[in-house]
């Protein structure tokens, strides 16, 4: 058995004894002069298969992530398709200043920040509250049903979700407005009233993702030592006190990590849904940087200008991420890096 | 522990807690039940608000229309193709890479890992990516739907952590002692031991492909390549909008048609996920929890 497998597959071999016998002829071709000191090189050659293993991923990231990173320089150029990225003339910060000086600049900033902060304020605490509440349930069947059902909407596609929102909120035929009318109020045309857009966006997100967001917190709560709770019970702590003094502190590291990640995406709001819910009537409160990039870049083919807007967005995000991470590191010793 | 009786305060808390969770449950459940009921109800009763919970004036007209619509079938076929092909590519890229990066004796793993993670925080953005895909000649081919998302860094991290934590190192050492090559070890030992994480990955990626509409929106203009989500967008989002602004009878007819098939099409497009979800929910959760470990 031993010999068989060696005979058929004699490539990478970590066994120093076997290496001398089986491995030599294979390795020699790649390594002309084997020197005893070059340990690292030997390690690389022994594991050549591992390099083949990562090769597809390396190629993928190089092509689809690093080339666009290089291509982002068109933000500083006047991109002419026939000249290519390299051949197009430099224009410095012209595209950026055009964006900063445009009349929609502050509207876009206001909407982008408004929607993200609103989402953060409403969407961040809810999974924590739901997880704490679920954690107190000892009845397994009830707990499992709540979990199964609240996770599920996470898997509804953004298109179906938008379809649901539009159907439910329709002023004449939507169920929400039927309920509003039932209570004697006037129907609200949610989708064409700019004042409602952010609320619709945020609360539909809450409906879809709160359950799913509890998973990480429930895992953290499962890691709390039950002895802490037992000791607290003996000391006469109420349930509420145990949640406040044991469970919530246990969640803080997880909360901080998620908060950092969320802040880093502050300007990258879930724009697929916004794009689907956007219409000319709610545009003044629904247009965010990302949808603007899509419109001016993909639809109007203003590649350089749209890249500049996108780059501005990405840079602000990176700065926010680094800043929040630094603050978290100083204050609580929990950080991403 | 149970020797200590619940205090009155605790009992109040418990009642309140159950009430809170029940309300949360109903809020999530109601729209879903409503859609199911609406999909088999008389659309007039639905739009007049006479259908609240259970179907009224049962009709399968919506489903008939959906299944009679050629675009839906084309979309379905394309989505299945993109999902199967895309997920296969995802797994073929993710699993070997994650395994290699999990191996402690793999020189350069930290550099490669850093190169991957960097893309999580910095990207060229939508337009340069679009120009690249266009430049590669992928626009209006199925490859535009699968190659730009060939791997996700987060999933590579999850797999890597799994390989590090769940595969006993002694097993690998023993295999190497017996003269097993890395490739053979990967296929004969690692893969069979990793079915849970492979299931998780297949599901994460699969759902992603199934629900993906944005790649199609920017890279595809040929209707015959449209995935289901883009067909849905036309039915659910665009027609509804146009019916609100234009008054022509053609539009009204279209809107009526849209009203009939609206709910049915939501069900039909989500059905595959609804069917697999209860069986695989545990795997999904496991995947998220592995991902939440320090990685």
From TrEMBL, chain A:
<feature type="transmembrane region" description="Helical">
    <location>
        <begin position="48"/>
        <end position="67"/>
    </location>
</feature>
<dbReference type="Pfam" id="PF00528">
    <property type="entry name" value="BPD_transp_1"/>
</dbReference>
<keyword id="KW-0472">Membrane</keyword>
<feature type="region of interest" description="Disordered">
    <location>
        <begin position="1"/>
        <end position="38"/>
    </location>
</feature>
<feature type="transmembrane region" description="Helical">
    <location>
        <begin position="155"/>
        <end position="180"/>
    </location>
</feature>
<dbReference type="InterPro" id="IPR050809">
    <property type="entry name" value="UgpAE/MalFG_permease"/>
</dbReference>
<keyword id="KW-1133">Transmembrane helix</keyword>
<protein>
    <submittedName>
        <fullName>ABC transporter permease subunit</fullName>
    </submittedName>
</protein>
<feature type="transmembrane region" description="Helical">
    <location>
        <begin position="115"/>
        <end position="134"/>
    </location>
</feature>
<dbReference type="InterPro" id="IPR000515">
    <property type="entry name" value="MetI-like"/>
</dbReference>
<keyword id="KW-0813">Transport</keyword>
<keyword id="KW-0812">Transmembrane</keyword>
<feature type="transmembrane region" description="Helical">
    <location>
        <begin position="303"/>
        <end position="324"/>
    </location>
</feature>
<feature type="domain" description="ABC transmembrane type-1">
    <location>
        <begin position="109"/>
        <end position="324"/>
    </location>
</feature>
<feature type="compositionally biased region" description="Low complexity">
    <location>
        <begin position="1"/>
        <end position="13"/>
    </location>
</feature>
<comment type="similarity">
    <text>Belongs to the binding-protein-dependent transport system permease family.</text>
</comment>
<dbReference type="InterPro" id="IPR035906">
    <property type="entry name" value="MetI-like_sf"/>
</dbReference>
<keyword id="KW-1003">Cell membrane</keyword>
<feature type="transmembrane region" description="Helical">
    <location>
        <begin position="243"/>
        <end position="261"/>
    </location>
</feature>
<feature type="compositionally biased region" description="Basic residues">
    <location>
        <begin position="26"/>
        <end position="38"/>
    </location>
</feature>
<feature type="transmembrane region" description="Helical">
    <location>
        <begin position="200"/>
        <end position="222"/>
    </location>
</feature>
Automatic annotation (TrEMBL), chain B:
<feature type="transmembrane region" description="Helical">
    <location>
        <begin position="12"/>
        <end position="36"/>
    </location>
</feature>
<comment type="similarity">
    <text>Belongs to the binding-protein-dependent transport system permease family.</text>
</comment>
<protein>
    <submittedName>
        <fullName>Carbohydrate ABC transporter permease</fullName>
    </submittedName>
</protein>
<feature type="domain" description="ABC transmembrane type-1">
    <location>
        <begin position="76"/>
        <end position="272"/>
    </location>
</feature>
<feature type="transmembrane region" description="Helical">
    <location>
        <begin position="186"/>
        <end position="207"/>
    </location>
</feature>
<keyword id="KW-1003">Cell membrane</keyword>
<keyword id="KW-1133">Transmembrane helix</keyword>
<dbReference type="Pfam" id="PF00528">
    <property type="entry name" value="BPD_transp_1"/>
</dbReference>
<feature type="transmembrane region" description="Helical">
    <location>
        <begin position="80"/>
        <end position="99"/>
    </location>
</feature>
<feature type="transmembrane region" description="Helical">
    <location>
        <begin position="111"/>
        <end position="130"/>
    </location>
</feature>
<keyword id="KW-0812">Transmembrane</keyword>
<dbReference type="InterPro" id="IPR000515">
    <property type="entry name" value="MetI-like"/>
</dbReference>
<keyword id="KW-0813">Transport</keyword>
<feature type="transmembrane region" description="Helical">
    <location>
        <begin position="142"/>
        <end position="165"/>
    </location>
</feature>
<dbReference type="InterPro" id="IPR035906">
    <property type="entry name" value="MetI-like_sf"/>
</dbReference>
<keyword id="KW-0472">Membrane</keyword>
<feature type="transmembrane region" description="Helical">
    <location>
        <begin position="260"/>
        <end position="280"/>
    </location>
</feature>
């Amino acid at each position: 058995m031993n010999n068989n497998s060696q005979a058929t597959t004699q490539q990478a071999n970590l066994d120093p004894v076997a290496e001398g016998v089986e491995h030599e002829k294979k390795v020699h071709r790649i390594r002309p002069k084997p020197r005893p000191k070059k340990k690292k090189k030997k390690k690389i050659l022994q594991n050549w298969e591992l390099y083949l293993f990562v090769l597809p991923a390396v190629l993928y990231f190089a092509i689809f992530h690093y080339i666009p990173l290089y291509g982002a320089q068109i933000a500083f150029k006047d991109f002419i398709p026939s000249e290519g990225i390299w051949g197009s003339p430099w224009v410095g910060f012209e595209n950026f200043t055009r964006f900063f000086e445009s009349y929609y600049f502050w509207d876009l900033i206001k909407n982008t920040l408004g929607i993200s902060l609103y989402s953060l304020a409403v969407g961040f605490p809810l999974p924590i509250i739901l997880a704490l509440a679920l954690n107190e349930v000892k009845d397994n069947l009830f707990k499992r049903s709540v979990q199964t059902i609240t996770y599920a909407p996470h898997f509804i596609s953004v298109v179906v979700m938008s379809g649901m929102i539009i159907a439910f909120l329709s002023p004449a035929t939507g169920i929400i407005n039927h309920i509003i009318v039932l209570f004697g109020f006037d129907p609200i045309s949610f989708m064409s009233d700019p004042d409602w857009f952010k609320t619709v966006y945020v609360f539909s997100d809450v409906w879809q993702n709160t359950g799913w967001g509890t998973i990480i917190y429930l895992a953290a709560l499962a890691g709390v030592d039950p002895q802490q709770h037992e000791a607290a019970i003996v000391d006469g702590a109420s349930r509420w006190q145990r949640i406040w003094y044991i469970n919530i502190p246990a969640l803080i590291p997880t909360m901080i990590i998620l908060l950092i990640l969320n802040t880093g995406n502050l300007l990258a709001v879930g724009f697929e849904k916004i794009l689907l819910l956007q219409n000319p009537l709610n545009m003044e409160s629904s247009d965010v940087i990302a949808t603007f990039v899509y419109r001016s870049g993909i639809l109007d083919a203003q590649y350089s200008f749209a890249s500049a807007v996108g780059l501005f967005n990405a840079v602000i995000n990176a700065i926010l991420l680094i800043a929040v991470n630094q603050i978290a590191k100083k204050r609580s010793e929990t950080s991403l890096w | 522990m149970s020797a200590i009786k619940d205090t009155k305060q605790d009992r109040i808390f418990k009642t309140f807690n159950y009430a809170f969770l029940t309300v949360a449950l109903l809020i999530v459940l109601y729209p879903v039940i409503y859609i199911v009921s609406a999909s088999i109800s008389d659309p007039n009763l639905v739009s007049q608000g006479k259908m609240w919970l259970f179907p009224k004036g049962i009709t399968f007209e919506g489903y008939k229309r959906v299944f009679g619509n050629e675009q839906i079938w084309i979309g379905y076929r394309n989505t299945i193709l993109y999902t199967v092909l895309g997920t296969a590519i995802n797994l073929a890229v993710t699993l070997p890479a994650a395994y290699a990066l999990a191996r402690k004796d793999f020189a350069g793993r930290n550099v490669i890992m850093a190169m991957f993670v960097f893309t999580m925080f910095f990207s060229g953005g939508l337009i340069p990516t679009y120009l690249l895909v266009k430049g590669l000649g992928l626009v209006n081919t199925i490859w535009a739907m699968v190659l730009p998302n060939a791997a996700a860094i987060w999933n590579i991290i999850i797999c890597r952590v799994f390989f590090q934590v769940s595969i006993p190192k002694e097993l690998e050492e023993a295999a190497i002692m017996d003269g097993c090559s890395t490739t053979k070890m990967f296929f004969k030992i690692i893969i069979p031991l990793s079915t849970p994480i492979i299931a998780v990955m297949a599901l994460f990626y699969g759902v992603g492909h199934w629900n993906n509409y944005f790649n199609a929106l920017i890279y595809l203009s040929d209707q015959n390549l449209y995935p289901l989500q883009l067909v849905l967008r036309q039915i659910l989002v665009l027609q509804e909008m146009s019916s609100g602004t234009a008054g022509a009878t053609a539009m009204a007819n279209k809107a009526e048609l849209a009203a009939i098939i609206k709910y049915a099409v939501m069900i039909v497009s989500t059905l595959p996920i609804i069917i697999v979800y209860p069986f695989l929910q545990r795997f999904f959760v496991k995947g998220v929890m592995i991902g939440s470990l320090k990685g």
